Amino acid sequence: MKYITLLFILLVPLKAFSFSPNVHDILFNVHHKVKTKKNIIPAIKNGYYKWKGVRYKYGGTDSSGIDCSALTQELAEELNVHLPRTTRQQIHAGKTVSQNELAAGDLVFFQTSETTLHVGMYLEEGRFIHASTRNGVTISSLDNDYWKERYSKGIRVIA
Fold first, then answer.
1. Which of 24, 31, 32, 118 is catalytic?
2. Which of 24, 88, 133, 138 is most exposed by smallest CB count within 10 Å?
3. Domain map (residue ranges) of the chain
4. Domain 33-156 class?
5. Angle of helix 37-51 relative to helix 68-78, nearest 10 degrees?
6. pTM beyond 0.85
């Protein structure tokens, strides 16, 4: 027990001096989701299954109803990424990527009216998850004429 206490006393101050967070996390059993291509899609799908079928509700943030930006915020949390709450804030939360460079976890934005933006999270193979006013939380295709005509931009939020 003396050795464990001594180890703890020696390592805790090192954290204050930019001790490698990975070593710190291993030593102190801190669990973070690793953001690799291999587990991004399963994490996003896991988030989708938690929300699938929940109805759309403007301003909603829970299982009684959720809006598009709250959903992307929740999905991003599955990837250990913290997004701002609104679509107008989220569109500035990362780096712009072209549509042909979209990768799992990227945000996709649509201009659904002159003043309204819609956001979803790119999954794979031209599909994205979003909170639809008609179908609630669902998966749609960027190839769908409605979304194709309204596509605005992609934003990479995963470093």
1. 118
2. 88
3. 1-32, 33-156
4. alpha beta
5. 130
6. no
